[in-house]
Amino acid sequence: MRPTILWRIIPLPRSRIIRHSCDSTCCHLRLPEPWLSNQTPKMRPYKMSVLLVAGMAALVSTDANASGPFVDVRSVDPTITVELRYAGRNNVLGHSLYPLGTPALARPEVASALAVAQSVLRRYQYGLKIWDAYRPAAVQAELWKASHNSDYVANPEIGVGSLHSWGIAVDATLVDSRNRDVRMPTDFDEFTPAAMEPYMGSSFEIGGHARLLKYAMHKAGFCGLRTEWWHFTIADWQKYLPPEKAKSAAQVLGTHWEGGL
After folding, report:
1. First to last CA, the chain
2. Which end of the chain is more exposed for a tag (fewer CB within 10 A), N or C?
3. Neighbouring C-alpha atoms within 13 Å toward the C-beta of 141
4. Domain membership flag for residue 17
5. pLDDT digits (tens, 9 = 90+) for 90-138
6. Average pLDDT value over all residues in the chain
7. Is 166 a member of any domain?
8. Is 29's pLDDT higher than 90?
9. String of DSSP letters for the chain
């Protein structure tokens, strides 16, 4: 049986704001006091065996950003649902950008953090669905060519490009206890004001789902993105980039940059 619906839980009067810092980016969450008392579960050890299909392995090996080991997210936590939108036609370009059977890859630390977020969501009978994880620079170039909109898509030729291409960012949504999609503010890659904060959807149900996703990801050590409710970056992302690139990226993030990961 499903627990009391989420949108009846979130607006409790006894709530306070959490200020979650992601270096220069701060996210504010209003959560009920009972949620704040929960302890973050320990990260599960990750398996160093990287499960790659041949096509994706070739893309990783030729990607200049792929300097560290990547793991299949589901090898760390097989309960996480994966539906890579760029591995099919259901995406902003309308055609596949990844080889058939591509797994969701990320740095081991990111995969372990996703397992933490999953364990948080399981307390409320929800779970994670991953829409995108590691994204080869060649795919990022295709997305940039199609959009040329730096508010939503990072130019791979400038700075660090997309943090997806470093294996330190994911796009995620929620599923219920039966792995069915739940209502969220927008669909994936819907680059409209409806995908931006502080908009949380047209109903308490949708807003509750969006807040729960953000809460679980923040508890696991991720920070969100103002322009895309589905995008999350590991909070200590700078340490996974070369020092010179991390410094330049931090300067941009700390000034005018607000989107385009």
Report:
1. 38
2. N
3. 6
4. no
5. 998 999 999 988 999 999 999 999 999 999 999 999 999 999 999 999 9
6. 78
7. yes
8. no
9. ---S-GGGTTT-SSEEEEEEEETTEEEEEEEEHHHHTSPPPPPPPPP------HHHHHHHHT-TT--S--EEHHHH-TTSEE--GGGSS-STTSS--S-TT---EE-HHHHHHHHHHHHHHHTTTEEEEEEE----HHHHHHHHHHH--TTTS--TTSTT--GGGGT-EEEEEEEETTS-B---SS-TT--SGGGSTT---SSHHHHHHHHHHHHHHHHTTEEEETTEEEEEEETTGGGGS-HHHHHHHHHHHTTT-----
| Encoded tokens for 222 | 């991720």
Gyration radius from the chain CA atoms = 17
Torsion of CA 82, 225, 112, 70, to 10 degrees: 70
* 212, two tokens: 């729960």
Token pair of 205, please?
A: 């149900």
Q: How confident is the model at residue 59 (pLDDT cuts 50, 70, 90)?
A: low
Highest mean pLDDT pick, 44-53, 115-124, 159-168: 115-124
CA distance 49 to 19: 36
Count: domains in the chain: 1
Domain with 35 in it: 27-253
What CATH number has the domain bearing residue 37?
3.30.1380.10
**Residue 167 forms part of a structural domain:** yes
Q: What is the pLDDT of residues 8-28, one digit of tens each?
A: 333 333 333 334 445 433 344
